[in-house]
Amino acid sequence: MDMTGEGLQLGRVSGVPQSPEEAVLDRVPNAHPGTHYVARFTCPEFTALCPVTGQPDFATLVIDYVPDRFLLESKSLKLFLFSFRNHGSFHESCTVEIGKRIVDLIQPVWFRIGGYWYPRGGIPIDVFWQHGTLPEGVWAPDQGVANYKGRG
After folding, report:
1. Where does this protein hold substrate (predicted)?
2. pLDDT at 1
């Protein structure tokens, strides 16, 4: 893959995948391999469906990673996350599935995902998954999502 985006969804008309299995995640080369830094994606309007009731569940997802050779391409991430809108899965499964899929693709030095889910039945369920160890001397800020008290 080169930096022109050849073969990527980037720069092309792309429909929303109907399921996470159908969604394609893309990666691009890291212009600074060997330099440790944190990249962050925040999705404050993530939606999936409860697998039991079919009702929508809402979350803020915060994805932090220290890239190695590849970066996660943001348009493909957006489409991948959108694909969960018709997908029935528990909070824990959604959060970990997203994290594992990204790690498998970009093979980062370090990765973490925080899924900050709004309450259903009065109880928020926050889910955290991490892969690897944050390199010494690299700053990874707090994810910045308030503990539940209206989430904001």
Report:
1. 72-74, 91-92
2. 40
